[in-house]
Design brief:
311 residues; mainly alpha; MetI-like fold
């Protein structure tokens, strides 16, 4: 190749690289509006909430001033913090585990393509479509402590007397967990069912030929392959349960007493009933940090096994 040929090749390559570089960079202009919109709805409110938590803003008074970490000291010395933390941990852990376990069982059942599986898929998603406040109000009427409540009416048919469902702390928490689990199962079913349908069938056929039982195929093939999907369900379910306000507020309101008081209900009461915006922002900031810590823990559980599998 002569010098003229090499120069011609270089001249043709340089414009192509610049054109490719321009096309790649040009894509970012299309996603910038979406990124800016998401950041405006998430990052800015979060940072502004952190700023408010460092002040003494109260809608019952005029003006506010910087108080530093006084609100956080007040939060961590709160007398009911242990009770609220225990209630929140019990509610989040139990409801999320039940959502994932029951959702996985329902997803496996729907993946079998039995008779009427299309109808069952449609019915399964119904609880997720209903507004959360409506769900809370409906179940509050079902378990109402009078003869008008459907639950007490059904008990009367079998000769059992009326029950005050929300007067017993343990029973009230169990009802709250059950309703929120029922509301969150469809999301887990949809995500896990989509994951099941992407799994390679030849792996199951090979395992069946080798004599593996259904339980062994589920334990050693299905669960490991679905592990990233399960972790997504855990992350989304944990965030939803930790920030859950509508159903607990409509169903129990934190009662009886403070037996079902969750951290989200405390934030609502401080911000909208006591009008203590700065203290409510403090609780919200603690919830944000708790969400981030849980996400990091979930991801840390995922990484070691991936490295082992790659190694």
């Amino acid at each position: 190749m002569t010098d003229l040929d090499r120069a011609a090749v270089l001249q043709t390559r340089v414009p192509r690289r610049r054109a490719d570089r321009f096309q790649i960079n040009g894509y970012f202009f299309f996603i910038l509006p979406g990124v800016a919109f998401v950041l405006a709805l998430t990052l800015f409110p979060a940072l502004y909430g952190v700023y408010i938590s460092l002040t003494n803003l109260n809608l019952g008074y005029v003006g506010s001033s910087f108080v530093g970490l006084d609100n956080y000291v007040r939060f961590f010395t709160w007398n009911d913090l242990g009770l609220v933390a225990r209630n929140t941990l019990t509610f989040v852990a139990t409801s999320v585990i039940l959502q994932v376990v029951i959702g996985l069982a329902v997803a496996i059942l729907l993946d079998q393509r039995l008779i009427g599986y299309r109808l069952m898929r449609s019915i399964t998603i119904l609880p997720w479509v209903l507004p959360s406040v409506v769900v809370g109000l409906v179940f509050a009427q079902i378990f109402g402590g009078s003869r008008l409540g459907i639950a007490n009416y059904l008990l009367s048919l079998v000769g059992i007397g009326q029950m005050s469902w929300f007067a017993d702390p343990a029973l009230a928490m169990a009802i709250l967990i059950g309703v929120c689990t029922w509301r969150g199962i469809p999301f887990a079913v949809i995500v896990l069912l989509g994951g099941l349908q992407t799994l390679p069938r030849d792996v199951y056929e090979a395992a069946a030929i080798d004599g593996a039982t259904r339980w062994q195929r589920f334990r050693y093939i299905t669960v490991p392959m679905l592990r990233p999907i399960i972790l997504i369900c855990l992350i989304m379910g944990t965030g939803g349960a930790l920030n859950s306000l509508d159903i607990p507020l409509a169903l129990t309101g934190g009662g009886p007493g403070n037996a079902t008081e969750l951290i989200a209900i405390s934030l609502y009461k401080q911000s909208f009933l006591q009008l203590d915006i700065s203290y409510g922002a403090t609780i919200g900031t603690v919830m944000l940090i708790a969400n981030l810590v849980l996400i990091v823990l979930y991801l840390s559980v995922l990484k070691p096994r991936r490295r082992a599998e790659r190694g």
